[in-house]
Specification:
It is built from 5 helices and 6 strands, in the order βαβαβαβαββα. By secondary structure, the chain is of the alpha/beta class. The chain has a domain of 72 residues: 3-Layer(aba) Sandwich (Rossmann fold), CATH 3.40.50.960. Helix 1 crosses helix 5 and helix 2 packs parallel to helix 3.
Length: 156
């Protein structure tokens, strides 16, 4: 049985990528976005093939993703939901993760989940370029790999 695996480098035609970013917790979101953009540039995706769409908060990410998915070869979703004193965190984190997962499950195009769900601002900043790396960069690599995999599956 053959092995089909996506590649981390862009192959074939250069893909277009949409990045949907939550403005809430903007310092964290901007760091995630910068990590994603830097990584995409490093693997050869021209900046003019990457659109950045800002939404007010993480809750708005799934609806926006559904509307724009046909325009891109892949979507990356970025943001940070940080636990507070109320149950609001649970509702927002559940809604955004479930909405993005629903789009990804359709399997039409890669939809990459890069919304941090953290207990503290410190945990979030640690994952947005701090000691735990940059989840935005990780998501960019995942998007390129999944585009490659989907293209191979279409040819098989």
């Amino acid at each position: 049985m053959p092995t089909i695996q996506g590649q981390w480098q862009s192959q074939g035609s250069t893909p277009s990528i949409g990045i949907i970013v939550s403005r809430f917790n903007q310092n964290v979101s901007e760091a995630l976005l910068q990590g994603a953009l830097d990584t995409l540039t490093r693997v050869g995706i021209p900046r003019d093939l990457v659109d950045v769409l800002w939404v007010p908060g993480a809750f708005e990410i799934p609806g926006t993703a559904r509307r724009v998915l046909p325009r891109y070869d892949a979507l990356i979703t970025l943001g940070a939901v940080i636990r507070g004193e109320t149950a609001h965190f649970d509702f927002v984190a559940g809604a955004v993760s479930g909405g993005v997962a629903e789009l990804a499950r359709l399997g039409e195009k890669p939809v990459i989940f890069g919304v941090l769900t953290c207990n503290t601002v410190e945990e979030a900043t640690s994952r947005a370029g701090g000691k735990n790396g940059n989840r935005g960069s990780d998501c960019a690599i995942a998007a390129i790999e999944m585009i490659s995999l989907y293209r191979q599956l279409s040819e098989a």
